[in-house]
Amino acid sequence: MTRPMTPPVTVDARGLRCPLPVLRLAQALAREPVGTAVRLLATDPAARTDVPAFVRMRGLTLLEVVDVVAEADGGEHTAYVVCGLSATQSEAAPPAHPPASPGMPPAAPPWPLTTPGEA
After folding, report:
1. Alpha-carbon distances of 92 from 4, 26, 44, 76, 118, rounded to whole Å
2. CATH topology of domain 9-89
C-alpha cells in the first residue's frame, strides 16, 4: 500500500478523554479531501481500541500506530495515522432501495392511522 505524498494533517487530542479523540479525528477527516492522511495524537488509553474500531466501521485505512515514549513538547502519547483511501462519494452515501421490477406498481403508502371515534 502506498502512502499519501503530502504530510498528514495533525489533530492534537492529547489530554482528552473518550470519545473526544475519535470525534476530533472524524471532524478532521470530514474537513479534508478524500485521501488526506490525518495524524491523531492521543494520550487516552481507550483510543487504543476506539481508533481501530472507528477505522473499521468507516472503511478507512489505519496506516500507522506509533507509541511516542518521550517528546520534548508533548510527553508520552500514541500517534495514529488514518486515511480514507478507498472512500468515494457513492460509497459514503446510504444504499438506495432497488427499483421496482418492470411492470410492478410502486408500493402503496401505509394505511392512514385513525383513532376510535374519528369520522
Report:
1. 20, 14, 28, 35, 44
2. Translation Initiation Factor IF3 (3.30.110)
